[in-house]
Amino acid sequence: MTLPDLSLLPDIALAGNEPVFEEPWQAQAFAMAVTLHQSGAFTWAEWAKALTAEVHSGVERDYYQHWLCALEKIVAQKQLASASELVACKDAWHEAAARTPHGQAIAL
Amino acid sequence: MTSHDHDHDHSHLTETEARVRALESLLSAKGYIDSAAVDRIIQTYETKIGPRNGAHVVAKSWVEPEFEAWLRRDASAAIHSLGYHSRQGEHIEAVFNADDVHHLVVCTLCSCYPWSVLGLPPTWYKSPPFRSRAVIDPRGVLAEFGLTLAPTTRVEVHDSTAEIRYLVIPQRPEGTEGLTMDQLAELVTRNAMIGTGLARAPQVAS
Prior knowledge:
Radius of gyration of chain A: 15 Å
Radius of gyration of chain B: 18 Å
Mean pLDDT of chain A: 87
Strand content of chain B: 5-15%
Number of strands of chain A: 2
CATH architecture of the largest domain in chain B: Alpha-Beta Complex
Largest sheet of chain B: 2 strands, parallel
Strand order of the largest sheet of chain A: 1-2
CATH topology of the largest domain in chain B: Nitrile Hydratase, Chain A
Oligomer: heterodimer
Order of helices and strands of chain B: HHHHHHEEHHHEEHH
Helix content of chain A: 40-55%
Helix content of chain B: 40-55%
Strand order of the largest sheet of chain B: 1-4
Shape of chain B: globular
Number of helices of chain A: 4
Number of strands of chain B: 4
CATH class of the largest domain in chain B: Alpha Beta
Number of domains of chain A: 2
């Protein structure tokens, strides 16, 4: 599988040519951006721009928090899912977690 | 019941985890992403993901008998002594492979998986069929991973729970007497620490 040019992205932590993740959700967010790009939802240059805007927004966050914010925004901008849909779905996940006994898979 | 106990009655997602799940579930429901494609991309990196602190724990237990004894006695404390804390603070038990016993850990839940120790779970690990098959036919599952055990080796399957997570301590490979702890840690794969593989043999210098 060919991956997009990660060096276009600002300040990304790489080991060799590969991204470094500290938590599972970071890999998930990374992979979603890559697959959306691969399926043509946005160009890699558009993604780099969206991410750069977050990284340079002046808001202090961890790198993949910037990544996640950029992903939510570009997804809304490309009308794949609106901000309000995302919030409603996020709340549904919290509710699903609350009704799921610890140790079982959480499902919506 | 204390409030601490109450927290363990149900699952919890951080705000960030819930946002990521929202993106994935919405975009896949709308057909913009394919979860399998997302998993494939993650798999490309899975050996690099996560701190793999467990590899250090394993290597240390190979070279320091006192640490090994501590790990057998109280793995949570021994692991914490190295500065590795799992976020949920659950109890970790170390299970040691030997010639006569091989341990395999099953868990279908990424929320139940001590990724801070082991690195990210492989995607197949989360699938319910893997779990049920591993319980019914562990040797068959291990064979699919290319691991054929001697008939005299007993297989013990451990199911992670909300309270106890397992770390498999693989056997130290032959021919590693002269290696440093860091070199030894390189031989400890994530799969070896969940029991679907063995520690790698050292590369022979050419």
